[in-house]
Amino acid sequence: MSLTFNTTSLKWVAPEGQAIVKISNATQQRFAIKIKTTNVDVYKTTPNIDFINPGFTLNLVVCRGKAPMKEDKLAINYIECEMTDTDAAEIFKRPGVKPNVYMITMKCEETPPAPGAP
């Protein structure tokens, strides 16, 4: 079992905005996460490095600054870690670490979706 994510894509109808990705840990294992994006000048995330303890859900806030509308990617890197680990960033620097990666597509739409559209 692993982490679960509430979405595979984020969409904005304006050139700027905010969205939330819910990352749930229904396992008995603690995970470290590290967030990366293809456009660091446009997208900011809170948190960008953190832990998710067993049984918890993390709300990852993704903020898009004003910029030309194009498709980008958000990569959520995650790896199992020990409850005694205190620095999530250090876990990703360990030799031979190969984290899992969950990709989210981020798009801007020129027009808002019709009422009732997904």
Order of helices and strands: EEEEEEEEHE
DSSP summary, beta strand count:
9
Terminal-residue CA separation = 28 Å
Biggest sheet features: 5 strands, mixed
Q: What does the average pLDDT come to?
A: 92
Instruction: Tell me the radius of gyration.
Output: 15 Å
Low-confidence runs of at least 5 consecutive residues: none
Strand line-up of the largest beta sheet: 2-9-8-4-6
Number of helices: 1
Tell me roughly what share of residues is in helical segments: under 10%
Structural class: mainly beta
Which descriptor suits the 3D outline?
elongated
Estimate the strand proportion: over 45%
Task: Walk me through the structure.
It comes from Caenorhabditis briggsae. Residues 1-118 form the MSP domain. InterPro entries: Ig-like_fold, MSP_dom, PapD-like_sf, Sperm-specific_class_P. This is MSP domain-containing protein. Pfam families: Motile_Sperm. The chain has one helix spanning 88-91, and strands at 3-5, 9-12, 17-25, 30-37, 43-46, 49-52, 57-64, 72-81, 100-108. The mean pLDDT is 92. The radius of gyration is 15 Å and the shape is elongated. The strands form two sheets. A five-stranded mixed sheet has the order 2-9-8-4-6. Strands 1-3-7-5 form a four-stranded antiparallel sheet, with no helix packed on it. The longest helix is centred in the C-terminal third of the chain and has 4 residues, at 88-91. The chain contains one helix and nine strands, in the order ββββββββαβ. By secondary structure, it is mainly beta.
